[in-house]
Amino acid sequence: MDKFLDNMTSYAQDLKFEDIPQDVVERAKHFILDAVGCALGASKSPPAIIAQASAKEISSSTPSKVLGSAEPTSPDLAAFVNGAMIRYLDYNDTYTGYTTCHPSDMVGPALAAASAKPDGNGKDVILGTVLGYEILCGLTDTPIFEGSTGFRHWDQSALGLVAASVLSAKILGLNKEQMDHAVSLAVSSHLSIGQIRTGQISHWKGCAVGNASRNGVFCSMLAAKGMTGPNFVFEGEGGYFNAIGNKVELPPFGNKGGEFKIMRARVKPFPSGYFSQSAIEAILELRDNINNVDEIKSILLETFPSGKSAMGGDISRWKPETRESADHSLPFVMAVALMDGNLEIRHYDEEYYKKDNVRELMSKIQVEVGEESSNAWPDVPLNVLTIETNSGEKFSTKVAFHLGHYERLMSNEQLENKFRPMALQYGDLPESQLNELLSKLWNLESVNNIDEVIELTAKK
Question: Is residue 169 packed enough to be buried (19+ CB in 10 Å), middle (13-18) or exposed (0-12)?
Fold first, then answer.
């Protein structure tokens, strides 16, 4: 028996909504609300338009409705569209361990699977979301990518695939044997390479985990019909662990000796790569000391190795040519925040990353690995910032816990303040419909038909 698979699916089979503590339910609703808001914010993005058009061409005898349009399609394609929209803006949450992930990517397949059920409800989505966080964040807490193949060779969607197949099988009501086969089918047929997030970044950066979720849901649908997958898919000679290059064990699950992983996930206050969140706060703290950016001689950011490698370790981060490269550029997001006093979605829409004055300021920014920041990571995303002016003055600050970190939670009001502009400006929702949607999301466990929520994300 594949012990890794058995441990994971046994937990999933046993977990019930009633087993989830109320504080975990509340946190799950926060992340689901945030994910839906991020999806609405990406409603008009090129990947969303492409994905929705593709999904619209597919019909299904057990359809799922899609975020943003409420159009019916197959459950697997609904998972892809939902996931691509949630992830595209790089505004959804983050979890850090040995590597990082965006666990609310799992809200996409949870909504799709629940929508495919005649009686799919809010409790199904909460349960699936909490379970998805347990698996995805649990894998992120292991050194799974530190094997012989190297950390950069595999993408986080190789982990999201595992979680999406487990949670979709759970929501769709598969038994233990069927769930084992669903996971086996999924992980034996989809491993994503790390090049997805390297160099000038493409649309696929925001779609890769959505595609992994599509595969996970599809394989759950196959397993429900009797399709079998290979034995020992994780631990076998040709299995997942040998492909990745490392064998690991998941940490204790929530309610099984461990804290629920969702409680240590982090909401983003800015639409940019996670490693920049406290750096942006730091530069906003020092902004009042600078009368004119022309006065600046240099800006030094001392960060942790992950921040340097992901958002400041490649020439493309100083010369981004795509929106996706820009939101993963520490120099860009810091420069815009200093110049405009904030970082918003519109800065990417208006292609600030190609403006000469922005690039001139970016050229004055250095990003280095700092000892203090390295020692604090991954629990503390510490960024240390120093600005030096042409006159020789220096201004320094450091930010450890950005707004939205689990040590500095956003209030419900702050979450709504993030949600509303995305729903109104980009999702085109009328105020009354937006308020109804928020009410449903805040009371998700009482929603008897999840399609009522999805339908409210489409302008009526």
Answer: buried
**pLDDT at residue 201 is higher than 80:** no
Cα 324 to Cα 47: distance, rounded to the nearest angstrom: 12
Tell me whether the omega of the peptide bond preceding residue 75 falls within 30 degrees of 0, making it cis.
no
Residue with tokens 């990406």: 42
Question: What is the sign of the dihedral through the CA atoms of 412, 418, 423 and 425?
Answer: positive
What integer pLDDT is reported at residue 197 of this predicted model? 74
d(CA 351, CA 199): 18
Name every residue whose Cβ is closer than 8 Å to that of residue 101 and which is 6 or more positions away in sequence.
94, 95, 136, 137, 140, 156, 159, 160
What gap in Å lies between CA 453 and CA 460, rounded to an integer? 13
Residue 86, amino acid? I
Task: Compute φ and ψ for 397, nearest 5 degrees.
Answer: -160, 170
pTM (2 d.p.)? 0.95
Domains in the chain (CATH in brackets) are: 3-264 (1.10.4100.10), 274-399 (3.30.1330.120)
User: How many other CB atoms are there within 10 angstroms of residue 237's CB atom?
Assistant: 7
pLDDT digits (tens, 9 = 90+) for 76-122: 999 999 999 999 999 999 999 998 999 999 999 999 999 999 999 99
SS (H, E, C) 363-393: CCEEEEECHHHHHHCCCCCCEEEEEEECCCC
Would strands 296-303 and 383-389 be described as parallel, antiparallel, or unpaired? antiparallel
Contact between 387 and 320 under an 8 Å Cβ cutoff? The reply is: no
Six-digit token pair at 450?
A: 């999840």
Give CA separation, 131 vs 53, 210, 237, in Å.
30, 17, 28
User: Which pLDDT tens digit goes with each residue over 353-375?
Assistant: 999 999 999 999 999 999 999 99
DSSP string, 63-89: -EEPTTT--EE-HHHHHHHHHHHHHHT
Mean pLDDT of the chain, nearest integer: 93
Do residues 366 and 298 touch, judged by C-beta distance below 8 A?
yes
